[in-house]
Amino acid sequence: MNVFSPLFVMCLQFIAVLFAAPAFAGWVRMVKCWFQGRKSAGLFQPYRDIFKLLHKDVVLAENASWIFRFTPFLVFGTTVLAGVIIPILSIDLPLSATADAIALVALFTIARFFTALAGLDIGTAFGGMGSSREKTVASMSEPAMLMAIFTVSLVSQSTSISHMVNVIAHGEFVLRPSLAFALLAFILIALAETGRIPVDNPATHLELTMIHEAMILEYSGRHLALIEWAGMMKLFLFTTLGIALFFPWGIAAAGDITFLPVAILLLLIKLFFAGIGLVLIETGLAKMRLFRIQEFLGSAFLFATLGLLSYFMLE
Amino acid sequence: MNIAAQINSILAALVLLTAFGLLVQRRIYGLLHLFAWQGLFLSISTGVVGYVARQHHLYISSILTLALKVIVLPYILHTLIVRLKIHKEVETVVNIPTTMLMGIALVIFSYHLTAPIRELSTLVTRSTIAVALATVMLGLLMMITRRHAVTQIIGFLAMENGLFFAATSATYGMPLVVELGVGLDILIAAFIFGIFFFHIRETFDSLDVEQMARLKEEE
Amino acid sequence: MTLIILLGVSFFAAIVLAFVGDRRFAPEINILGSAATFIASVVLAVHVYYEGPMIAGRNFFFVDAFNVYLTVLTAFVSMTTAIFSRRYMRREREHGRVSHWGMRFYHAMFQLFIFAMLLALLTNNIGVLWIAMELATLSTVLLVSLYRTPRAIEAAWKYFILCGVGIAQALFGTVLLYFAAEKVLGEGGEALLWTNLIQVSGQLEPTVLRLAFVFLMVGYGTKVGLVPLHNWLPDAHSEGPTPISAVLSGLLLNIALYALVRCKVLVDLSTGTNMAGNMMMGFGLLSILVASFSLLRRKDIKRLFAYSSIEHMGIATFAFGLGGPIATFGALLHMLVHSLTKSSIFFTVGHASQMHGTQEMSKIKGLIKGNPLVGWGLVFGVMAIVGMPPFGVFTSEFLILTAAMKEAPLLAPLLLLGLGVAFAALFRRVQPMISGAVPSNQMPVKASHIPIILHMVLVLIIGIYMPNFLSEWFHTAVGLLK
Question: Would the CA dihedral through C402, C403, C406, C408 be positive or negative?
Fold first, then answer.
């Protein structure tokens, strides 16, 4: 049974990521509506959106190359793959030995790279503009993200995410300033990577303010469905990554299947609060000017580096 | 007393965070609040060290810091800002991401510089002396990279904060007479620069220190 | 008891003058206060001369040959400056350059400044030394901007910020020193006392003291006006009222150097290397060269002499760094004669600028014909300051050069170069000012003859014949600074 338990966990996570992500996105939208005094469309609206899009026709531009058609599948695939690397429910994952934090960041990078190419592919102005803005954000957020993850990995002496989570969840409880700084940096970076306010408004289609939306403006039908779904999964994954790295208590240990239901319940509670936290940030801040994003991400890099330094200086 | 050392480390990290915050913050009221927070963290840290090391004069120091740096000085600055009607955002000489990078370099440099002291010290607070020197350096950087008179002064005061922190972390605080004297000096300095701002304002109609660059070396 | 009078008089006078500083008898109170301080300092000096170093006030005060000599010098120059200030400031007041609040502030701060300087000299506690130096700076900041012109305010701001930053570094150095001292002497005020530190200096940790000295050098070095930390000096010394320029140039620089030398002695005994001395020599030489070359291009008369102060402080720092009996004797003598000469020069310059209503050298002419005291005072002052015999500065510079040629022969040519360039530059600048016909816009001025004549006579006497007690005094001080 022990050989199969990692595979079992992996399948469970696979299902969780695929089908819980739209629910999480729905939860975030609901809370946002409540905060803004509107009536929400319900928790399951994202499911309905994806379902609707899957049935529609794809409208392709004449000069779209294979990149344009290939990208949605690639993005979807890499995001799901990332989903089975991150310890969401249990530390026990079959790929954890080979796929560490750097591989995770690389997966997200591949997805982002191809999205940017797809935006350029058709040759519209919006696409190109979105791609260049996205790359600007990426060029600063990726070093910061790696720095933040390295800070956590210093504490656990390894870059394997499962190992990191294990050390923090089941090691002794110590108040570490380095992790506090890394958490702060991670929140800022997550906001940038998932395209939320104050970096990018996910609900806008105004030329002045689009970043991510601009790249995928030309997609329709099942392509758009896959991309939207991947976007929701990315938000879900970043949230669970943050929870796993910084608040991992309650995660199931290796080989411990009976703990899984408790782990699932605890995860749901954490996601509940994470959603509220995200909406608080989004509602409380205004979207920044494009040129202020470098300061924002510079601060993220700064916090991550401070975390790294305070590990050496204070611990 | 492991937990106290951890609390002290977290407070040191927060002091460093506020020092960086002062470096990058644009709005004047934001600067003032950050400075007050820095003073608060400093006084709490002094209190904790006093409890751990059973040095009772540190309690007095802590209360003195609280009174001076969290209440009196921000109040004076606030009154000045209101009277001088300073609204604008603060401009910087170098842009903010570059300032942050320079700040990080200074932190690494001060960590190197204080290595011999860390090896020799037997105090529970020895790891925080690097943070203290870094705060001094960051205050200095803030004074260099800002063009507004009020923010230069806040940088100067942040530097004094760093020095006070250095005294507490290297040596459990200087003797009380010295601390009192230093506090008195800071208070006098506060009054002086308050008067100064009015003079500058009267004569130059602005508090941008770039205006005061006439005494160049052609004389 | 003497100490109480010494410090108390100036402090009390400061308070009194804060209230009555704008009355007609205020300058007289100023002079009386300074005279009382001077007499007390002489009494103290005689006591220390005959009985050796003195500790008082429960280890708070420590008076040995080194600082008592500076105390007498400080008290003397402040007294003569107070006499000078009487006529000078009266005229400034008449011409409306200072308001009545300004006068009160000026007189009160003048006495407070003297108090701070004396406290810095006499205290045994290195922390209190720092506090007094900071107090001395703070009391003069607003005096530099007394005239409220744009240039004055800019000068005062630079002074405040640069000296503030510098002295903060010195505080860090003091903290490090305390850190090292605490290990050996235990916590509390005992660890900062000079008398204790000297006794245990061998046990103080060398690495920490090295680091501490770097910070102390940067900090107190800024206040001495060493290059490259000197930017505030020309501005601050030229924009304030002339009596303030005189005491800043003549006295405060000396006291900062005193603080630096005290720290150097500790560091030398602890580390056993020559690091402190080498640093002082380096900074000193740099100051001499930069300052003397800067003298060539100056257009404002007070800035000219401010740079000359930088140069002379560089000479003294170099000499203290060189070490050894001859150089140290020369340095101590140099501090004395430079104080007297420079303040006298500033007195004459002050009157000269009052006569012409400007500080620009191109507009000042015909001083000898216009007011012989001012003109000849300036001539002799400049002759003295460039090191011409028979004035005292020649003696000190000669001693320092001799020591340099013996101990650091490669550096002696640089020293000579600096001195030579300064000689040429000063004469070139001063010659048009003193000779020639009287220009039409020159106003008559009632010059203060006593201070100028007294200072120059003293410098002359020291140059020709050094009194026995003075040389013995110096020898004792040299012995202390080994």
Answer: negative
Beta bridge partners of C54: C63
Between CA C411 and CA C415 the distance in angstroms is 6
Between chain B and chain C, the number of residue pairs with CB atoms below 8 A apart is: 133
- Chain A touches chain B, with at least 3 Cβ pairs below 8 Å, answer yes
Nearest by Cα to C12 from C32, C79, C25: C32
Structure tokens given for A240 = 């669970």
- Say how far apart CA C293 and CA C313 lie, in whole Å: 15
Helix, strand, coil % in chain B, rounded to nearest 5? 80, 0, 20
- How many residues in total does chain A contain? 315
Q: Where are the domains positioned within chain A?
A: 5-314
Indicate the length of chain C as a whole number: 482
- Residue B168 C-alpha, separation from nearest chain C C-alpha, in angstroms: 9
Three-state secondary-structure class, residue A172: coil
Taking only residues 154 to 173 of chain B, the set having a beta carbon closer than 8 angstroms to any beta carbon of chain C reads: 156, 159-160, 163, 166-167, 170-172
Of all helices (H) and strands (E), which one includes residue A278? helix A260-284
- Tell me the per-residue pLDDT of B38-74, one tens digit each, with 9 for 90 and over: 999 999 988 888 888 777 788 888 888 888 889 988 8
A51's CB contacts (< 8 A; 6+ apart) are none
Q: Which two tokens stand for residue C326?
A: 């001859």
Distance from CA of C272 to the nearest CA of B (A): 18
Q: Measure Cα distances from A243 to A164, A235, A250, A270, A271 in Å.
A: 12, 12, 11, 8, 8
* Tokens (6 digits) for B133: 């020197």
Closest C-alpha among B11, B158, B30 to residue B89: B30
**Rounded to an integer, what distance in angstroms lies between the CA atom of residue C464 and that of residue B153?**
50
* Residue listed under structure tokens 């020095």: B163
- Give the phi and the psi of residue A254 in degrees, each rounded to 5: -65, 130
Q: Which of helix, strand or coil describes residue B57?
A: helix
Chains C and B touch (3+ CB pairs under 8 A): yes
The pair of structure tokens assigned to C420 is 């030579």
Phi, psi values for residue B119, rounded to 5°? -70, -30
CA C297 to chain centre: 24
Distance CA B154, CA B156 (A): 5
Q: Which residues pair with B148 in a beta bridge?
A: B208
Question: Which of A12, A57, A19, A16 minimizes the C-alpha distance to A229?
Answer: A19
In this predicted structure, what is the pLDDT of residue B216?
A: 55
- Are B104 and A306 in contact (CB < 8 Å)? yes
Which residues on chain B are in Cβ contact (under 8 Å) with A136? none
**Residues A285/A197, Cβ–Cβ less than 8 Å:** yes
Strand C61-63 and strand C54-56: the pairing is: antiparallel
Interacting residues of C449 by C-beta distance below 8 A, sequence separation 6+:
C373
Give every CB contact of residue A25 below 8 A, 6+ residues apart in sequence.
Answer: A46, A232, A235, A236
What tens digit of pLDDT does each residue of A6-41 get? 788 888 888 888 888 999 999 999 998 998 888 888
| pLDDT at C222 (0 to 100) | 92
- Whether A313 has its CB under 8 Å from any CB of chain B: the answer is yes
Instruction: For residue A206, give the amino acid letter.
Output: L
Helix axes B2-24, B96-113, angle to 10 degrees: 140
Give the tokens for residue A247.
């608040």
Q: C146 or A170, which is more confident?
A: C146
Q: At what angle do helices C392-407 and C449-464 cross, to 10 degrees?
A: 40
Beta bridge partners of C55: C62
Q: Is C15 exposed, middle or buried (0-12, 13-18, 19+ CB in 10 A)?
A: exposed
Cβ-nearest to B215 among C155, C168, C182 = C155
pLDDT at A185: 92
